[in-house]
Each structure stands twice: as C-alpha cells, then as structure tokens.
C-alpha cells in the first residue's frame, strides 16, 4: 500500500476504543486519559453508558465523533465484522491490539477484504499500540509513560517495544512516535517509514524488524527516508540453512544475514547488533552529517582504556588516524614527558582540563583526523567533572574545529555528573570504551551507507567491458537450446559462451564428445607447445573437481586421452548417477603474478539476486574471504565490493608486485549485474577461478544455472530488490537553441533544483503548488529526486548546458491502475514545447506501466495548463466541492 489514510495517524481527530471493557481496551483507555489526549474520546461497549469513566455507545454505528483512530481490543475472530462496520461508518484507521494468536491466513484475508472497499488501514493484529507524544496520544498497552523527543520507534515485536520504552525512560530519552506493528495484515514497515520521513518532529527512526516480506517496497521506502534522516535498524540474523543447502560456492557463501547487511547498507540504513546500540547509534548519527571518512584520534588519561577502544575499532574496521609528523611534534612540545603523543594520545592519570584541551586543539587541526574520541577514567589526581565542563565549553554543537566529538567517561558516581554536563553541552557520551568505539564505528558505517544511496547505476554509461552488440540475443539462444534438452544447468563451455557475450574474457576451449576424441584434439592443440587442462562436462556435476573431473598440466595427446579415461572411471565410481556430456580441453593459463578470484551470482530467498566477489580457488569455502552486493552495480559500487575483501590488498599491489587490472575486474562485476538485469530466469553463476593480474582478467572455470519456466519473463528482472535505473526511457528533443535531454530523474539532480526553482516565478509556483511557495527546504529536493522507479517516476528535461528546464512526475496508486501527474517548467523556457514533451513521455511511461488513467488537479484559472493537457487528450471536469480547482483525466 502507501501512506494513504495514514496522514492522521500521529494526530487523529478522535479516538474510539472498540470492546472497551476487554482488559486490553481498558489498558488503552487509561493510557489515553493519562497521556492527556485532547480530542474526543469514546468507548464502544454493549449495554453500558461509560467504561472506566469514558463515555460509551452501544455499537460502532452509534459513534458520534469525527472519524479518527479506532482501537480494536476484542476477540480477534470478530475483527473482520468490526472492520467492515468501521469502514461503513467512515473510519479509515484501525489499530488492532487484540492478541495475534489464532490469526491464520483465512482470517488475515477476511480482515483485508473487509477493509479494502472503504480504504480503511489496519495496524496489527497483536499490536502493542501507538504512541504520539506531540499529540498527547498514548493508545498503547505500555505501563510506561513516554515523553516528547526526536526519535521514532518502529517495532514488529510488542515485547521488544516494551523493553525499549523501559530502557529509554531510565535514560530520559523521549520519542516523536512509537508504533508496534504486530501481525502486519496491512500497514507495515514501508508505510510507516514513508509516514515518518515527512514527520517534522522525527529526527531519527529506530526499527526493530523480524522479517521483510516485500523487499523492493521496504528498500524503496527506506532509501527515501534515509535520505532525509538517520534510519537505524536491528534485524535478527538470517538462518544459515538455505546457504548450506546451496549447490554452488556462491550460494554457500551468500548467507541470508550477509545479504541483509548489504541490503540495509544499500538503503542508507545503519544496522546495529543489540538493543542498547539502537539508542546509542541514534544519539551519535543524528548529531552529525555523513563524512567522507571517519579516522579516529583518541585522547585518554588511561592507556588501558585506549587499548580497549583500539580493540573495538579494529573489530569494526574503523580506521585509527595516522597523525602527521607536525602533529606529533606539537603534541610532544605541549605535553609533559610522562604523556604519550602517539594515537591513542595518553595524557597520564593527572591530566587536568587544560592538558585535554591543548591535545584536542592540536589533533583537531590534523587533516588526517576526522573524529575525536575523548576518554576519562576516575583517578586519584584526575578531575573528571572539570574536564567535562571544559570539553563542553570548547565544543560547538558537539564538534571541535568542525570535527565530531565522542566522549567516554568511565566509572559510576564520579562520572555521573560529568556525563550530565557533557550531554547538556551537546556531546554524545558513553560509559565504556567499547561503546564509545562502537559509536565511532556507527559514524563510519552510516557514512558508507549514505554514500551508497547516491549510486543509481546508469547502464548506458557503465559498459566497461566490450559486450557483444547482440549479447542478450546470444545468451537467450543458449538458454533456449539448453532448456529444449530438458536441462537447467549449463556446461562449463556453455557458461563460457554466456559470459563471453557480456564481455568477460574466457579461456577458449575445444570440446570432445567421446574419450576416443580427446587424444586427437589435444595433439592438435599442443602442436605449438604449452599444456592443457582436461575437464569433464556434465550438467549433473556443479563441482567437477570434487569427483576428480579436472586434470591439469597435460603435455601430450596420449596423456590427454589417459586423463579423460581416468575422469570417466572416477565419475562412474563417485557419482554413478551423473551423465558425462563431453570433455573440455582448455589451454593452461600460466601467469606468474595472477591472483585466483571468485565471481558469482546467487538467489537470496528474501532479496533475490546477489553478486559475490572474493578470493577463489579450491579452498574458497575454507578461506571465506568474500563479500556480496545487491545489483545493479556501477563502477563505484563494484570497487566498494572488491574493497570489502582481504584479497583486495593483494590486487592493489604489494612488496614490489604490480597491481592487477582493477578496471577490468570491476567491469566483470558490472557485466554480471547486466546479465542479472537482462535474464530473470538466471538463478546462479559461479566463476572460480577467475585470474587477475596487470594484463587483465580471464575466467577459467564457470557454471550457470537458470529456471527454464522464466525464459519468457521480460527484463528488467522483477526479482531485483532495487529496480535498475530505467535507461531505456532516455529521449532527445531538438530546439533552435540545441538538444534537450529527457531522462528519468537521478538523486544527483537535487543539486540542480535550487537554480531551477530560482527561475520559476512566484505566479508559476502558485499555479503548480496551488499555493504561493517561495522557499523549499533542502529535504524537498532530496525527496523529489530519490525515487524507486516503481511506485513513482519523474522525468527531467535538461538544457543544452545541462541545467534543469522542467520536471514531469507521476505517482502510482497502490494497485498501479491509476496515477497522479504533475508538471513544472522553468518560467523563462515556457512556450518552447518542453512541457508537452515531458507530458508525452509521462503518458508513454504510464501506458507501459499498465495504468488505465492519469489524473491531476489544476487551478481553474490555469488556462495554459488546461490547454496543454486538453491538447494531449485529457478531459477537464469541475470538482463540485472546490470550484477553484478542476480535475484533468486521461484514459489510457
């Protein structure tokens, strides 16, 4: 769904509690009164005039308050009937706090069927409730009062929500909203993220999630929200069983929990591993903007505490700042000889406020330092409270010289007052070295996740390797031929054809259909010297090395024939059910400086296709130096994937050995991404080994598996969790002043919006937004440009100079049968056909998406817009309850 009818959720005009005498209903009523909800509040209970002091009516039909939030507390089996009554009475939001036990698929569907004719939305069943402190609304089962704050909490578990509220109360943490989603019959995480992204009271969103039933919708909503404010998630790990059952190396190495990690990072979300980290992470990342890097400098009065922080930084991969020589000299000159000027900077146990400030000022001036971690242990000669006061006085909004400050004041009673001073001074503080170092890691991880948000791979500009012009047709023909033979797994030779078509260099081989042919073909191949590898071809053997199906360093035709005969004997003995299709003879690739790698594609049960990269060879599953990514990829994402492995250090060159051809390696990863986009039928790819050295890359052994039943499914791949950038919708229009480019909007276009809006007149602003708008906050441009290309599409027109000339947009209804359009063209460029071109491509897109109509409201006085859409076939009709606005509709 969408946020339709959720807009009043945080500020409902009224609250009705249905089955209010039920224990859960009574709990909600009491919390509503204790919270001070100011709107009308009414109970529904048969045969009574009031429930626990709240006025009651006997049925839903008798409700006499403006429809708002209905809380349902009775037996869950009665919910479909209650929901139907509420919808008929004009209510649009139901919060079901009834127990979730007994909610089977039939009952879930019955609740939805009852709600949908009225567009009534449902939270629950089994919801712990809803709390909106700024509306003084506590429609929950919580025994703990909640105060106002800037954090929103979304939880799929009522017990976890309760525990978090208890912990937050003990730490004086307030909330902008608390939502417990329960069984998620209707409203889910995606809807709530969309809602909270636009909530002015929410500065950070915490999410506890247990499942992701619709990954594309979730990632779309998460990406939109994370562009505007920090989103921090705690997700229980995925089960390893699916990975263990996989036949390919890539499948076994692509565990669900690892995929969850990369999916959340790609959505701009910071993932934490424990409940206590949720709030600590929110306190840290909500204070600071993402950074290019987060190299940490530590200042401490205890060497042991510094070592503990170092250990945690190393575990999380957070870099320690390498101080400049000039910084070391200044520290040595400013500090007593009992101190250590190296990072971590140990100020000794008698450190006074002045010593701390001197060290911090010197470190903050070092260009290699991004984050300052200040630590203080209680000592006989130390002054923890005085140091805290000095630090709070020096810091400006939690920064020194613009660099984030994280604090760790250890101890109990002696540190309590100091921590309060630091918090009042706007400095994020922690009570243990590991927690403070984890906060620095949070900054690192969040910054990396935010950087991933900027990547929207544009296929047309990412063709690194030389793919065949008809690559898609070539590969489709291979799949069709294999499917006609009743197979779903390609031989190594067939897999090589597929990879080569997309530009990945493959070691060329020849095929012998029988053992008797192997010697003759080998002799021909060895006429000019060299060595061969003899390999069995069998679609029944995903790992032919496991049964001795590969023989290396064959020097003569006789040796090759003997090798093939030996392979046949071993397969018959160790895999008696496997069919031998043929024998592959491949020249040995001898490269002294080559590094063996693995590239692969696996299908995750939640997020669909994933790409794997890492160290390859026979011991790949033992070494386990791999990383995964969600397609689509561009060169930046491919390089980031490579960089998350240990083997990347070898690839970059070391001890005089030259670097491998990283551009070709990145190109191979992008080629795999394109293959995934083009073939929804693809299920797995294993390229192991792929060797890389300064001369380039070459795939030596490979396998591909596909689903023949999906051969007819057209690209782009619907299984992708992130929809590819729709490159196919690029157009060009010629005007006297030059060519204008029309294309789908990209996140980077947010940078073009300020200059664009500056050249739109106040009158055009009023006509477009139905009200006078002079200023738009930065988050508006981010929201307008961060799309999922699924539920929303926008096209931009760019001038020959690359400036933004106009934007057309369509937002699809939940069922994608209709869409609401909008159009804005720069005032000084109107009358040149730009608006008509933007509307035509929007109409073309809506038809291709399967919509049956486009509609949009236009001011009655806006004759120019009415004329434009009328010329394009729209009908214009008045809106009866608003004579100043007309509705324009195009039936597609």
Automatic annotation (TrEMBL):
<dbReference type="Pfam" id="PF19045">
    <property type="entry name" value="Ligase_CoA_2"/>
</dbReference>
<dbReference type="InterPro" id="IPR003781">
    <property type="entry name" value="CoA-bd"/>
</dbReference>
<protein>
    <submittedName>
        <fullName>Acetyltransferase</fullName>
    </submittedName>
</protein>
<dbReference type="InterPro" id="IPR051538">
    <property type="entry name" value="Acyl-CoA_Synth/Transferase"/>
</dbReference>
<dbReference type="InterPro" id="IPR016102">
    <property type="entry name" value="Succinyl-CoA_synth-like"/>
</dbReference>
<keyword id="KW-0808">Transferase</keyword>
<dbReference type="InterPro" id="IPR000182">
    <property type="entry name" value="GNAT_dom"/>
</dbReference>
<dbReference type="Pfam" id="PF13380">
    <property type="entry name" value="CoA_binding_2"/>
</dbReference>
<dbReference type="InterPro" id="IPR043938">
    <property type="entry name" value="Ligase_CoA_dom"/>
</dbReference>
<dbReference type="GO" id="GO:0016747">
    <property type="term" value="F:acyltransferase activity, transferring groups other than amino-acyl groups"/>
</dbReference>
<dbReference type="GO" id="GO:0006099">
    <property type="term" value="P:tricarboxylic acid cycle"/>
</dbReference>
<keyword id="KW-0547">Nucleotide-binding</keyword>
<dbReference type="InterPro" id="IPR036291">
    <property type="entry name" value="NAD(P)-bd_dom_sf"/>
</dbReference>
<keyword id="KW-0067">ATP-binding</keyword>
<dbReference type="InterPro" id="IPR016181">
    <property type="entry name" value="Acyl_CoA_acyltransferase"/>
</dbReference>
<keyword id="KW-0436">Ligase</keyword>
<dbReference type="GO" id="GO:0005524">
    <property type="term" value="F:ATP binding"/>
</dbReference>
<dbReference type="Pfam" id="PF13549">
    <property type="entry name" value="ATP-grasp_5"/>
</dbReference>
<dbReference type="InterPro" id="IPR032875">
    <property type="entry name" value="Succ_CoA_lig_flav_dom"/>
</dbReference>
<dbReference type="InterPro" id="IPR013815">
    <property type="entry name" value="ATP_grasp_subdomain_1"/>
</dbReference>
<dbReference type="Pfam" id="PF13607">
    <property type="entry name" value="Succ_CoA_lig"/>
</dbReference>
<feature type="domain" description="N-acetyltransferase">
    <location>
        <begin position="740"/>
        <end position="892"/>
    </location>
</feature>
<keyword id="KW-0816">Tricarboxylic acid cycle</keyword>
<dbReference type="GO" id="GO:0043758">
    <property type="term" value="F:acetate-CoA ligase (ADP-forming) activity"/>
</dbReference>
<dbReference type="Pfam" id="PF00583">
    <property type="entry name" value="Acetyltransf_1"/>
</dbReference>
